[in-house]
Structures are given as C-alpha cells and as structure tokens.
Amino acid sequence: MGTDITSNSEHVLTSIKIYFPVFLGAVVLYELVRQQGSFQRLYACRNRAATWTNPLVAKESFGFGQWIVPAFRISDDEIFDVCGLDAVVHLRFIRLGLKVAGCGILLSTVLFPVYATAQWTSLDVDILDSISLNILGANDHRFWAAVSAMAVISAYTMQLLRSEYKAFISRRHQFLSKYDVQQYSIVIRDVPKQLQTQDNLTTYLDILFPDSVHAVAVVIECSQLEKLVAKRERYRNKLERALVQCHTSGQRPLHLVKSRGTTVDAISYFGHKLDQLNLRIPIEIDTIETQQRSLCDLMAQFTFDNPSYASENGGPTTAVNPFPLGRGIAKPSQLMRCTAFVTFRTLLSAHMAQQLLQTSKPSQMLISAAPPAHHILWENLGMSIHVRRTLQLVTRYVTIALVVFWTIPTTIVTSFSSVTTLKKLIPNLDNAFAAHPWLENLVLQLAPLGLVVMTALAPVVFMLISRREGHESEPHVQMSLFKKLGYFQFIQIFAVSVIVGSVFDSLAAVLQNPVNLITMLAKAIPAQAANFMSFLVVKSGLNLALELWRVGPVLLGVVYSVCAPRLTKRERQSPWCGMHPPSEPGALRHSQVLPDYVLAMLLTLTFCPMSPLLCYFAAVYFALSELVYRRQLLFVYDPELKSTGLLWHPLYNFVVCALIVAQLTLLGVLILKQAPGPIVAAALLPFFTLLAHFHILQLYPRTSMYLPLLDCVRIDTARRQSDIPFSKQTYVQPALLSRPPLEPQVDESINVTGANLTAQEHSITDMSVYLLSD
C-alpha cells in the first residue's frame, strides 16, 4: 500500500468526513424506525419466541437510545445466561481490544511530544508524520521511547490475556456444571471394530465406570435410510402444497411424472408415495436393528479377557455374514461406523473418561466432550482419523493456494492507495486530478473500502473448504473457518497490502538490488498508518452501520420473500437456497466477525509505538462495536446457550502472534534507523513474550477443558437424589428415530377432506384412509 506523504492527513480526514456521519445518520434513523410496525420483527427478533426472550427484549418500548444504558448494565454472567458462552467471549474480546487501545492512547500522551520535538529534515512534513516514529533520524535517542512504549503495551496485553483466561475458565466451568445431557456426554471417535456394537462398548465402559453408563449410541451406516427419510419429507411437503392449491383454486392439481411422461392427480400421487414410505421406513429400521442384534450375537464370544478387545487386531467382525442382507444394507463389518456417543450418570465419569488413556494406539479411542446434538454432522462420523487428517492436509494446501491467488486482487485494490502508482498506470489521470482536486482524495478511499469488501467475500470461500475437513460438528467447522480467516486477514490485509504495494512502487530498485527490499519494507510499514486509520474508519462507520441495520439479511430476506415458495405454512417457515426470512436471524456467526477484531488488535499493537494516533481510531472501533453487538446479541440473534467457547483458544493464540509480529516490526524499523541500544532492548521483547506465553500454556488450557474432579464429586453428590432426566435417544441418529409416520399438516381453515372430491371420496373423512384410497 504505497503512500503519498503530503496527503496522509487529508486521506484520513476525508474518511472521517464520509463514514462517521454515515454511522451517526444510520444510528439516528435506526432509533426512529426500530419500533415502527414491522420493523420490530427485524430489530427485536428475540421477541418472537418466549424461550429466547430476556428482560431487555421483554420491554422493548425504550425511547430514543434508552436501551443503551440498560444494555451496558447487563453483566457478563447475565449475558452468559441469556446468550451463551460464545457471546461472552465475543464481547469480552472486543473489550480486551478497547483496553489495549486505551493503553496506547495513554502512551500517546508521552509519544506525541517526543516525536513532535524531533528535528525535521523537511519543511513540508504532514501532520500525521510529525507525530510518528517515521520522522526520527538515525540513532535518535527518542527511539527509547518507542521501545519503552512497546514494552509497556506488551506487558499490559499479556497481563490482560492472563486475566481473560482466568475469567474464561470460570465461565467454562460454570457451563460444564450445567445439568444437561451435553455436559454428561462424550464422543468417542475411531472406535476399534471389536467395540463397534452397543453391547460390547457398554460392557467395556461398565468395567471402567461401574453403574455410571446411562446410554450408549454407536453411529450406524444408514445412508440408504437417510435418503428414504429425506425423500419422505419431500413428498410430505409436496402433498401439503397440492392440498393448499386444491383448497385455494377449487381444482385438484396435476403432477407430471417425468419417468413415465404422464400426468397424474398430484394429491393421489404424493399421498400414495408418502404412504409407501411410511410403510417402508419402519421396515428398513427393523432390518438394521436385526443386523445389529445378529452382529452383537456374533461378537458375544469376544470377551474382555481377550488381549485384543480394545484394539484393531482380529475379531469376529471379519467373519462371514451369517444372515441375509436387505436391499441397500451394508455387510455387518460395514454396518457400524467408528464413532459412538456415551452419556454417563455422573459428571465425574464423563470427565474421567475424557482424561484417561484408553489404548496404547494413538489413533484409536479418541475421546472428547460431546457437541450439542443439533449441531452434529452425522455424515462425517464414519471417517477414520487417517481420512480426516488427509482431508485437512489437502484443505490446508488449498487454503494456501487461495491466499496466494488472492494476492492478485489485493494488489489491484492497494494500488488505489497511491496516487503516484495510479498516475503511472493511467497517465491521463494527471489532467483529471488537476481539474478536480477533490477527486484525488475520493480515489484514495477506494483502497480501504476495497479491503473491507474483500474481507466480506473471504468467509464464503473458506466456509466451503472448512466443511470438507471431516469435523464432527458445526462449532468445529466454525473454529476451522475462524483460523483460516484469521490467517487470511493477517497475510492479505496486513502483510500483502504493505509488501505488494511497496514492491510495486519500487520494483526497479528491488530488482537491481534485492537487499533494498528490507530497507523499503522498514520504511513502508510505519508509513501505512494513514491507510490503516482509514481502514478502521471504514470498519467503524460502514460495517457497523450495515450490521446494525442488518442490511445483508434484510436484502436476502427480500429475495426470499419474492422467490421462495410460500404457499404452505411449512414453506413460509423453512429456509430456501440457504436463505431465511429476515425475522429468523439464527445465531451470530462469531467465526466470521471476530477475525476483524484480531486484525484491529494487530494494527493497534503494531502502530502503538510508531504512530500512536491509530490507537484512537482503534478505540472508537472497539467501543462502537461493543455497543452494536450488545444490541444485536440481546435483541436480535438467536441465543446459543449450548456453545462451548471453542473460539477462545485460537483468539488467544492470534493475539500472542500479533504481539510478536508487532515487536519484530519495531525491531526491523530500529535496525533501519541504526539505533544499537534500542535494537538490543527490542530484540529481548519477543523472548519475554514467549516466556509469558509458555507459562500461560502450562497453567490454563488444560484447566479450561475439564471440570475439576473434586467439583464433579460435589455436584454429583448434590444431584444424587434426583433421577437422570436425560433421554437415551439424544445422540441417536435422527434417521433411526423416524419410525412414526409423517402426515401432511395444513392450515386449520382448509377442509382437506372436502376439497373438490368425488361422491365416493366425500364419504371418507379420515385423512390417512383418504390418502391410502385416493
């Protein structure tokens, strides 16, 4: 991202004039319309369900801006109760960034006069450069101030991270103590074949945890059954649509059977298909259960005394099939998948199972806490660890290739940040800029705006990749996506935008002498402060306004309302092509939002000692973000009360990496400025940071994963008097629970049995009989 020295302050000022009024106007207009009629369904969505409401939403009669103070008075414990652990992590990380930016603002009160009193080598110095490290000459004693500032903000950041880890552990343990089936359940992946039956695995666990096993569910290969269940739901939906069409038009609709090329009565056809599947699906389930029982009998001879009981060596699952196969049903050795869910009666057993070594083979019996049942990706649970690692390796290389490819559009976007570069590319711009001086400042806004647009496109691409890594649940997919977006933000927005733009501006000098690249980058990074200030202004003024107004979901909701089928009640409530009604926001995708704040943290730490004015813009960004996301989490987004805080650990790692990058960046600048004393001091900072980092890693990550066993015993003792309220079918595959028949459900106002029927059909009033006979 090349920079024109004389236009730095004008560049930032233009961004402020454009985007801060945009945000202010958006907030004022939002407050005026949010309580008007249908707007309440868009901006207080949690009111639509009594189970999702909270004290603030229940009295959404606040006047202009009157919700702000009550929203900030809600404690983290209350947010944990009404929004979930991920929401607490999200808001506390934003607050962490605000504290770091606040530290930078305090340090700026010292750095500003230190830099401003330096001896200038030029008279036409921009005001932003006059209060930055870039103005200092070689071996200036003022570099000690920059090193001291980096040391202070580094120590403060690590202390904040340590405090945040403690707070996270406290709330994580609070979550693990809840009396819910998720807290009492584990998932076992890569189960050896000898344990891939419910009886054998139950026997094995009963030996380890006597009288503690509540339910065992081994995942079954039932893809054929899952297809039948999905087909039955489609026929049910089509039948409902045909019934409504018959009621509204007074005529029975027709359906074209493509395989036969004939037209049939739609109600009769779909009703007949639905009845067929209602009969066939229980038979398929019975066949699978029969095979399970036969497989259990076949393996009954394999006892715990056998040394290969919990290993992959040998076993009766390789025996000849002793019973006939149903159509589409796998062989016994292929019937069971290598994953199982276990629910215990006590927290002590659940946490002991996660920490005990089950086998000497590191690729078997991998145990972790069970995810929420509604987030499980059942199609991935048959993959072995070797398949999963292969997929993750492939997706890692695909991600690297995408990041490299993304350098091309990033280069194009960053070229707009340098008027000099644009004039080289388009010589005719000289005349346009001379005739319209305001046009130059306007063009400079395209670079930060373009970077914002690119960060919005990245989640779509990386989500497709993350879903193909074999993760067991949606939260793990989101964590994988967050890591990819974090690296993408760092490489593309921070590194490539600086490196590529600088190399593009001085390509000839670099080719002539590659050593010039180091000097050029050391000069370029401090000079990027103005561009990154504008970037933060765009994020503050534009992105947060779009989030507050929910522009993206509302636009998709308009498309949904226009294009999606909405004839039946089910159609009006169901997603279509990935789109939902705007009044159904779903949960906040933290993995797609938090990478922006990781980047803001990186910019704050990097430019705090070099251009401390950026900390002010970062503080505004973090403060406005907490305001907006408190509103959205409390009033709009659906709560994720079963979220486990998976994003905290990568968040912590990203901040430590950002801190080390900031320290190395300062070290590179000091080397360029030939300041030997500050160089030695700055070189020590990464080592102290890593020392503190390793100390935190030794103490807290493991503590945050499990509930202390003594606490488990105390909680189990308090709950021992009550019966276990958990269903044994919570972690059973949904297809195996679809034995009950499906019937169409239409509005009560529709008289289904009287919708233009024949005389013979008028005598039939029972819906099931009508569908069977029609």
TrEMBL record:
The keyword Transmembrane applies. Residues 183-311 form the CSC1/OSCA1-like cytosolic domain. It is a multi-pass membrane protein. The keyword Protease does not apply. It comes from the Eukaryota. Residues 12-162 form the CSC1/OSCA1-like N-terminal transmembrane domain. The chain crosses the membrane at residues 12-33, 100-123, 143-161, 397-422, 442-465, 485-504, 542-563, 597-624, 651-672, 679-700. GO terms for cellular component: plasma membrane. Signal peptide: none annotated. Belongs to the CSC1 (TC 1.A.17) family. This is CSC1/OSCA1-like 7TM region domain-containing protein. It comes from Aphanomyces euteiches.
